[in-house]
Amino acid sequence: MLDHIGLSVADYRTSKAFYDAVMPSIGAACVMTVTSEETGGAYEGAGYGVAGKPSFWIGSGDRSKGQVHIAFTAPDRAAVDAFYTAAIAAGGADNGGPGLRPHYHPNYYAAFVLDPDGHNIEAVCHTPE
């Protein structure tokens, strides 16, 4: 249903460093950047995804208002654990460590962190073990 989603961040460099450190844990990476020169203004952004297609963008500008919740698919539970470890090491705040959330469904294994702007970022795996 969605092609891509983007967040405006308060400090582009800080947020880019955070996501550069976190996204490889779930098999994604920064696959595209745009500079202020390319956009003809002050906006610069980074797109994260797999196979060269950016699906999640962060960009300069006023921080997105309110807390946003974004859940990224993790290929397995070990990737959820790695996501959480990488996010905490990169300066994210704990918002729910890795574990089962059976109130969603029996195999819902997820971890939640707050990114540098306070957004609730999740990695989730839906498969058993």
From TrEMBL:
InterPro entries: Glyas_Bleomycin-R_OHBP_Dase (IPR029068), Glyas_Fos-R_dOase_dom (IPR004360), VOC_core (IPR037523). CDD domains: VOC_like. Residues 1-126 form the VOC domain. Gene3D superfamilies: 2,3-Dihydroxybiphenyl 1,2-Dioxygenase, domain 1. PROSITE patterns: VOC (PS51819). SUPFAM superfamilies: Glyoxalase/Bleomycin resistance protein/Dihydroxybiphenyl dioxygenase. PANTHER family: GLYOXALASE FAMILY PROTEIN (AFU_ORTHOLOGUE AFUA_5G14830). This is VOC family protein.
